[in-house]
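REQUEST FORM: STRUCTURE PREDICTION
Request ID: SP-0412
Submitted by: Lab K.M.
Chain count: 1
Length (residues): 178
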Amino acid sequence: MKPDKYEQQALNFLTETNTEFKAEFIEHGYHFEGDKKTRDIYKITLRRGSREYCFNFGQSLNDSEFYYTMGRQKINIDRKYLQLEKKRLLVLIRRQSPSFLNNNKSDIIHYPKAPTAYDVLTCLTKYDPGTFVDFCNEFGYDTDSRRAERTYKAVREEYLNICALYNDAELKKMSEIQ
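STATUS: Completed
RESULT:
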């Protein structure tokens, strides 16, 4: 499948900066503090020459789901069946729901999707978050919150790791991916 124009921008950035991108599935679980729903969690590796930055990435909830639709009805499929080849999965689904896949074009199996380079690069911190107080003021956090402090430290660490991989001009170019 040909990448869309947004993904192509991200792929061009990786090529121009000679960066390797890898997304490895870790688990399906809670990623962010306060998550109410589970999502797929991936280990992302950005490698450029001898420099490397690895971090966990929580995929969107929508792209973490495994389900089929029957008309307007959405029915979740147990993730233990993810490894089944499509033919065997269809047999299992037909057994559980004989009316499924009765040549209705709206009946579709939706598989989880790994994050793309675009998904990841657009989420990275490309600007210095400043001081803790600046960060809280900018994003509406309470300066007396331990959670806000943990978030700030994580954002700051991410920014410093990205700065170790890319120079200012490259960070600007990355920020233009949209």
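NOTES: The mean pLDDT is 90.
Reviewed by: T.R.
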